[in-house]
Fold:
Amino acid sequence: MGLPVQVLDSDGKVVTNSRIDFISPQVDNATQTVLVKARIANSNDALRQSQFIRARIVWARTIIPRCRCWLCPGWRTIFCICGGTAEIAAPT
Structure:
């Protein structure tokens, strides 16, 4: 939580910025999506409740889904499955 979010207009330009304040613990198995929420300032009433918008989460570093990795106690190595093959990634 707390990751930066950019709200985009129809041309892909940043309209406003916010931060994630909620991440659902449930994953939709059919779409592999997760509900994420951020509070968006709307002082000029440009947005309506339940309106569809495009937003982008700004990742400060590479995040590897835990369900795709094996952390070996005592090792400074992460084994990841990528495209059906195992790769080794050193954690930072």
